[in-house]
Structure formats: structure tokens, C-alpha cells
Amino acid sequence: MHLSNKFIKQLKSGQPELFITDDEVFCVTAACLLHDIGHGPFSHVFDNEFIPSVTAMGIHNNEGSRFRHEDMSVALIADLFKTNNIEMDDEKIQLIQALISPSTHQAVYQQYKAKKKGFLFEIVANETTGIDVDKWDYFLRDSRNTGIGISFKYERLMKHARVIDDMICWQEKTAFELYTMFRTRYELFKRVYSHKASKAIEYMICDILTYANEALEIIAKTKDPHSFLRLTDHIISEIEFADIIEGGKGMKGLLKAKELIRRVHKRELYKCCGYLLLSAEIVAPFNPSNANTSESTPSTATNEKKEDEHGSHAKIEYHAIERLWCSDLYEIFKEQESNKNKDNMIEREELKVHDMKVQ
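The structure corresponding to this sequence follows.
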């Protein structure tokens, strides 16, 4: 919130010809503060791992399978002002919502584009260049909390930003700062977000939620804002201390979830059995920019069409790559497990394709 407020005020004072209003300063600041309130427990683990996992297993409802944290943020914002009796013009609320999710608020987005104020949508989350205050904020937060030093300084980029042709641009002399920004992002992903221990715990949390879903009806709580508010990080403790009712719904899965929580506490984590690095050749067929080429996949082309209809930017389908590799690995491990069981006469729980995790 602080960085977005500082940034838009910098643009307002440096370029008065943009005619940035106080209401727009407020809305951009509020959007930055509220844009992630729609995340589920454990943030991206819930959105990007748990939801796709239960969808793949066929244990979902229509609402859960289409869950986007941006949509939930929009719904919560509408409810937030109403239930707390906060007087706010509908126009302001709609702008805040549009800044968070332009693809679902095209009328508002196009209205501001027509007024040459499309740059307002590049401050909180810039889908065009990837340079935005959301990244700057989590760089500072996560580097401080993990003790990893970074050399990136947002102040110079903020100072030398200008709006040209309704886009936020930077002077050529800031090229190294921009390089440092993307390098910092790479380092944090390499050293923190994609660290094997981090991914192991993420996958274990995903499996805990998946096993407990039937008993606690987790997916069902994503249907509306009020029930969604009951989903917090405390859900792990809720699962850990939940009573086992003999013959109750989902009790078998709940027992498995409790066992995984015990393993996390004892640091008996999932083991990393290898790394698969993405090459340009592997990524190319899943890149929406190649959707109209002969190398594109049907699903990619379909997704790009849907994204174009909303006027937003489609992203590389990394989950599709993961699913493809999971299928290949599943066949390999299934054959190996079958041979082991025959040789050792050991009965084990059947390996399923959704048990495979690829990072």
C-alpha cells in the first residue's frame, strides 16, 4: 500500500498533465492494500496447488474448479464496504475492483483507457512489463524475513518513471536497475520459493488439504465470501485436532491428513528425486504467443482466445507442462513399483497419477 501510494503521488506531482485525481490516488492505494485478500490458506499453495489437485482428482464442485483469488478479492471488497457500513461511491468501488481484476471489469478498464488513464492499471500488477509495486513489496518483505540480502532498490525506478503514450516507462539509464529487479526475482525463486524443502512442505500442505477436503468441505467454502472467510492458515490446526468419528464422512482421508501433519512436525518431508529444467524448446508449445502456430497445443489456443476476449494477458501454461511430465513419470514409477512388488511380494497402496508432483 505504501509503495503504490508513493508511486502514484510521484507520477501526479511529476506529470501534472496526467490530471491524476485524489480519488484515483485513493483507489490505486486501496487496490494495492486489498488485491490479495482473496488468497486462500497458505496463499498460492491453495490457489495453484490444492485447487488444481482436487480438480484433477474429480472431487470438486463447479465453483471450486474455477477459483481465482482475484475474483474472491473482488467479491470480498464489495462485501467489505457493505457489511461495515463504509460510505463509498459505486464508481470508486468499481475502479478498485477493476484495478485488481481488469479482465472481469472490462467496461471500467476500457473507460479509463479511453481517458488515457490505462497506466493506472500498471501500478499494482503490471501484466504488460511485469514491473509493479507488488513485486517491489514482496522483494523487501521476503528478503528481510529470510535474511537474504538483495541489491535491488525501488527508489531509483520510482524516481525515473514517466507515463508516455498511456504506459509507464523508464529512462534508459535505469536499465541496470530493471535487470537487478528481474535478477532479484530469479534469486528469490531459486533460493526460497523453489527450494526443495519449501516445495516439499507446500506439496505436503496441498495433500493435507486434499485428504481433509471431504471431511471439512474445504472446496465448498470457496463458493461465497462469508464462508470463505472461515478458511485461514489455522486450518492445519483444525485438521490436526479434529475428532475422528467412526463411519463419518471423509474420516479415512482425515486420518491420512493427520499423519502428514505429524510428518511435517517431525520434518519427515517428501524427498526430491531429481530436477527437470525447462528449456525454450519445451516451453514454446505452451506459450500463448505461439497459439496460432503449428507448434501450439489446442488447450493453449483456446486459453489465449478466452484471455483475448477479456483483454488481459495469457500466461505460459506451466501446469500443463507439469501434468505432461507427471504422466510420463507416473508410467515409469508405476512399472518400477509393479516390478518391486512382484519381487518382494509387498502390498502397497496403489500409486496414482495425481500423486506425482513436478516442480
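The mean pLDDT is 84.
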